[in-house]
Structures are given as C-alpha cells and as structure tokens.
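Bug #77: duplicate submission created two jobs. Keeping one. Sequence:
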Amino acid sequence: GDDLQNDNSDVYCPKGRVYMNCGYFPMKSSGIGSAQYGSRRKQLKNQLDKLITKAEELDDEIAAEGPFSINRFKKQAELFRLKVDMQKTGEMLMSASIIEPNDSVLKMSPDKSVGLTREGGVCCKVQKGISIEYHILGRFNIAPSSSEYKR
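Kept job's structure:
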C-alpha cells in the first residue's frame, strides 16, 4: 500500500515526505542595525536587576519613615509603580529567553555560527480534502557531532 505501517502497531506513516523540525538560531547577525545574539536578554536582565535594587532601597526608606508620614505614602506609591515595571520587565525577559534561548539548551555548529534546539519533532504532511495537516510521529534528539566525541 501507500502507507508505511508495522503489523503490530496502529501507527502509520502516509506516503510522502517525513519532516524533522527544531529551533534554529543564528548566533551572528548580519545587516544594518543587527544586534549580537542574546543582547536583548542581557539588557532586560540588567534592567530587572536595577529595578530590584531600587525596590529594595525604597523598602528600606519606607521602613525608616514614620507610620503617618506623607513621604511614606509617596514612596509606597512609587514602590507600587516600580513593582509593576518589574513585572513587565520580567515578562519581557521570559519572552526574550524564548526568542534567544541560553546556549546551554542549544547544540552549536562547529564554528558556533548556528544553534539548534537539542530536541525536535518528526512529522508527516497529510492531505485531508482541501486542507493540509501535519501529523506528529515522534521526537528526536540531536547527537553530539564527531568533533565533540574527540574531546
């Protein structure tokens, strides 16, 4: 038949191509205005660290004020705004970590110009009437390159 199937399994692979996909991250950007890989993540991390330091300083200042001080209320309002900024920056850092994952979760090319996620998916394209579906067949892991074995 047109499909590939093991006799003892209900899993089959339709005739056609099998696709393997994973994350692809060029490490060296090119072009005008391009940033170094990971720079956005580092910038946001530094920004969050500064916000945290400022919040800790404000906490100390609030503790030093009297319980009914006008300055205390002003500083508490500033601390509230600062915590909102910390939340937003933290969310942006999470997004940047997805767009620019840490090198430790990537498999690097020998020249370090490209990183691939260590895991990926295997799927096949299936035509269903006028629509196209991609059926997931399984997962794969990227093995170390031969140069990594020599180390």
